[in-house]
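Supplementary Note 3. Input sequence used for the single-chain structure prediction.
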Amino acid sequence: MTKRMPAIRALERLHADLAAQLITNRKETVRLLTGVRHVEAVLKLLEPGFKIHLIVPRRRNQKNPWFKKGEIFRNAIDVLRRAARPMTAREITEALLQSRGIEPDIKSVRCVDAGVRVSLRNHDGVTVERVGHHMPARWVLKGDAGPA
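The predicted structure, written as discrete structure tokens, is reproduced below.
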């Protein structure tokens, strides 16, 4: 009997773990489908002409792993206070990640950048303002806007 390479053993373990997760997920899928069908049946009992296909599944928001709710905008304001010039959302995002000690890779930048952009747009004219008509947009604190 020949000795197996460590890589083969590791891949076998990984395969076994993934297969176990598939079995668990199948069981969960069956449980969820059963629940959905029960709710549909009750809807049909209460209102026979109800069009179930018009119910759109709700999309759940994924939590940001680095910032709690409301923290992104507060930290973006701090970045803008320290900034000597108007900043783009991307520049603000990179500054936020660096302040947390997170290496700005593609995934982390996309995750935080979306929150920064939405926050800036939601507070446009209240706390922050867009400077000029540049693309990408450049932002400053309200009242700090210099020449465009």
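Strands lie at 87-88, 128-131, 138-141. The chain has two domains: 6-54, 71-141.
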